[in-house]
User: What shape does this take?
Amino acid sequence: MVFIIRTLIIMAIVLIIPSGYARGDAYLQSTATIIADMDWSADGTMVAVGDEAGFVQIIEASTGQVLSSVQSGDRIRAIAWHPTDNTLLAVSSFTYVPESATVTVLNTTTGQTVITIPTSAVDIPLLDWNPDGTRLVGVTGFLADMMSFRDILIWDPTTGQIVVEARYIDNNVNALIWSPDGNLIASTALNNVISIWDADTLTIVTELSSDTDTIGSLGWSPDSTRIVSALNYIDKSIRIWDITSGQEVLVIPDIAAFEVEWNPDGKSIAAAVSGAELPIFDADTGEVLMTIDQGSTSRAIAWSPDGKQLAFGSKSDAITIVRLPIADDGED
Assistant: This one.
C-alpha cells in the first residue's frame, strides 16, 4: 500500500451561528467526501476523518484546519486513534480482492506507514484499540454468497501478529468495542445478542439478548459496568444494560439511532439519528438533556476525551464539531 501526503481535502470551513444556548454552541463545520469513520486524538486537539475515497484527514478541532491528509489506494472502513499516542492512527480497509484487506498503523505527523497488518479478508469494517494501546481488535469479512463478518481477531500492533482469535462466529458481527478497563470486549450480531468477551482469551463471558430487534451500535460506560445499545429497525429504542446482572436498566423508546456513544464523563449519551436534531440523553434517567441542530441525518458521532466536545457527521459530506455547555458545568 502506497501513501502520499495531500492537503486541503476539506472543501470548506463554515462558522455556524448558534441557534441558542440550549442547543449547544456549534462553532465549526467542515465538509469532506463520504465519511466512513472519525475519531479524536488522545489529547482532544485533533479529529481524524476517514472517507470512502481512501483519504484520512487530520483536522485541528479548534480551527477546522486540515493539518494533513494521507491517501491510500483502498476504501477506508474504520479508523481508531491510539489511546495515548497522538502520532499513531489505525486504519482498516475494504477491497474486492480476497486476502487483500489490511490494518495499517500510520504516523499522523509524517504520514508514513508504521506497520501494515495483512489479513485473509476483503473487508475489516470494525476496529478498536485496547485502553493502553498494546492491542488492536477487529472483525474481518469474506465474500461468499454474501458478505460475512464472522471472525474477531486481536493483533499485536508492533509485530502484526494475531494474539488471539474467535473464528466462524454464528452471526455477522456489526458492532465491536473494547471496554474502558481493558478487560472485556463487547460485540453484537444479527442474532439480536450482545456478546461480552474476555479480552485475553476471546471466550464469551455473558450474553445479553434484546429479543426484539437487531442491535446496530454499542457504547461502554466509562466505568465498564454498563453498555448502551441502539435498536433501529423494528423496536427503535436505546437500551442500557448492567453487565453484572445482565439486565436492562433503562429503555429510551421511540428513537432509531444509527450510533450511540457514552460521554467520557459518564453522565450523558449522544445518539446519531435521522432528522434535524441530534439528542443527548441523561445516562441515568433517559431524559433529553439537550438537542443539537444537525441540519441532516448524522450517522457517525465521537466525543472528545474530556467529554466537552462532540463531533458528528452525515454519511455524505458534513462534519460538525460542537462545544457543549452541558459539559462545562456552567463555566464559559
